[in-house]
Amino acid sequence: MTQLQADKVSSYVTALCALKDDDRLRSLKPRKGIDFSSNDYLALASAPRMRKAISAAIEAGTPIGAGGSRLLRGNCEEHENLEAEAAKFFGTESTIFFASGYVANFAVLTTLPQRGDLLVLDSLVHASIHEGARAGRAEFRESRHNDPQSVETNIREWRSQGGKGRVWIVVESLYSMDGDFAPLEELVAIADRHDAFLMVDEAHATGVFGKAGRGLTAPYEGRENLVAVHTCGKALGAAGALVTTTQILRDFIVNRCRPFIFSTAPSPLMAVAVQEALSILREEPERQQRLTKLIAFAHREIGARRGWQLSGSQIMPYIVGDNARAMALASALQGRGFDIRGIRPPTVPAGTARLRISLTNNVGEDEVRAMLAAVIEETGGGGR
């Protein structure tokens, strides 16, 4: 590298060195070992029915790429069929398909909330929601995690300061790093009381919770003030995200949403895969039931052991605290054949580095028991 080249990248080198010094330097690693880190909760990503659906679509002439945005030639029959089927499945007036959950959250928050509105974000919502809020037109504030009173206080303070627009409350139904659930019933009541919208990211609940895997918003779907984002790349084993909403808001997205208007449409093959996944949820309830039993088994085995943060979901964080120690523990468990990854700030708050252990139908009780024994042996039985 020449001196000129070194000068051009020196700031990047400095930043990377700082990350390394703080034990936060990231690198890509291939998947290896027993799956305790993926979001393939129902083991659909490699399911024979999913493979057959894709193969049949290819044989029938379904194109691999859409070839353009949905408003040009990229609007394929497969997209239309998926959205119609998804609306029936989730019990909503309308749906719209995006290429990923990140894009869907960003798209909704930069399109629907308007200048003069207020976003109230739970402090632990996904990065895509924070980025959408920053890039959007509305003012935003954070509420304390899973604290309905904090949401209410933010709204009342904003109104007392002259806020006149619409309020948007934004949460995840199941939080991806803590594995805990949003108090949706209370939040729906707050939204109704303040004539507000409630936007719920269902990424880690779709397929796992609710009747036939319809998610934790299932009791509230169809309400005019609810917007839900059902990510398709986790329990549904595919990719993309379905936003469920009213026809009016869908039409507004089609006409005003820049990430939708100016992006090539998702692969029609992926729309086929997602539609097949919805059929599997309806027709094979044993997948959801098996995971529910596995979650209960793991929680019983763990009991009240120190370090574990359990809320009744398939996401079971093991809190370590120190960045270097968390990564060393993850490496040790990987060496024993378990694909477990360490999570550090800024993904989680400082001082809460952890192992994010997830349960999927890719494992059984024997593997869960062996994994827990390995964690106990490597830690002496407890976290921080």
Please specify the SSE layout and strand pairing.
Elements: H1 3-21, E1 34-35, H2 48-59, H3 77-90, E2 94-98, H4 101-109, E3 118-122, H5 127-135, E4 139-143, H6 148-160, E5 167-172, H7 184-193, E6 197-201, E7 226-231, E8 241-245, H8 247-256, H9 258-261, H10 268-283, H11 285-302, E9 315-321, H12 323-335, E10 338-339, E11 341-343, E12 353-358, H13 365-379
Parallel strand pairs: 1-10, 3-4, 3-5, 5-6, 6-7
Antiparallel strand pairs: 2-8, 7-8, 9-12, 11-12
Helix pairs in contact: 2-10, 3-10, 4-5, 11-13
Structural features, described:
By secondary structure, this protein is α/β, with parallel strands linked by helices. It folds into 2 domains: 48-283, Type I PLP-dependent aspartate aminotransferase-like (Major domain) (Aspartate Aminotransferase, domain 2); 285-379, Aspartate Aminotransferase, domain 1, CATH 3.90.1150. The chain has 13 helices and 12 strands. The protein has helices at 3-21, 48-59, 77-90, 101-109, 127-135, 148-160, 184-193, 247-256, 258-261, 268-283, 285-302, 323-335, 365-379; strands at 34-35, 94-98, 118-122, 139-143, 167-172, 197-201, 226-231, 241-245, 315-321, 338-339, 341-343, 353-358. The strands form 3 sheets. The chain has a 7-stranded mixed sheet, with helices on both faces. It has a 3-stranded antiparallel sheet with strand order 9-12-11, with helices on one face. α2 (48-59) crosses α10, α3 runs parallel beside α10 (268-283) and α11 (285-302) runs parallel beside α13. The longest helix is centred in the first third of the chain and has 19 residues, at 3-21. The model has no long low-confidence stretch (mean pLDDT 95).
